[in-house]
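Reopening this ticket.

The earlier resolution said the output was attached, but the attachment link was broken on my side. Pasting everything inline this time so it's all in one place.
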Amino acid sequence: MASDSSHIAQLTSELYFLIARFLEAGPCQKAAETLIREVEEKELLPIRLDWTGQEHPGTYRNLVKLYRHISPEHLLQVCSRVCPLLETEVPASVPGLTSLLGAGRQNLLRTSKSCKHVVWKGSALAALHCGRPPEPPIIYGSPPNIVETNFSRRLNGSYRLKQLVPTVVYLHMKMHKRILGHLSSVYCVTFDRTGRRIFTGSDDCLVKIWGTDDGRLLATLRGHAAEISDMAVSYENTMIAAGSCDKTIRVWCLQTCAPLAVLEGHAASITSLQ
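Inline output:
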């Protein structure tokens, strides 16, 4: 434990030096001066050893002279090399997309264990929600079955009488909320993995996010040049992809609503996403 704490302390002091080196070469000169002055006052920089082995507080200028091989862009180069190295060990959800602020399978701290598929049990759900579990998530019981998915899609076509949903089920249904927000027809609707957000794609080229509790508009995702034909939410509930008749697929982050990628290559309208 002592060796781990000393190792962390050494890395922390070196990180302070690299941050100051990076800021000093950029436009934030005042921030760099303030940081250098404060880390020297609090003796947070790597220590210096004299010829007798005595420790002395390190100064920023001495460290710059001592580590002349460290360029101002050294910290940036380290961050840019971490993403490809991690990609080979634990592949991300969107290959080639590098970000220091990612979540889920885009997180730089992800491990093979954290990205492993987990099957939730009823007892675990009850413990998480104080004995009152919500509607089971998508990973409850077992992963989605493609056979059941295809069968549900066929329900609006030909089907057998024994496969019909009993009419008594519809007696307990009622309208929860009616929302008017799009400028044109809505072509596709989907929920996120928690059931707390609704995504709607419309003929007005917009994807809107609504809260299921009060029906409030949470965000509007823009970028498409034609009507939205289909949408899909990532398995980790961190991204949403929307296909459009403009022959492109756009991906947004569900935490920041920032665009992540634009996928091009189709020669005609996109009709389905999975």
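Reporter confirms the inline version is readable. The chain has three domains: 2-72, 76-106, 175-274. The two ends are 47 Å apart (CA to CA).
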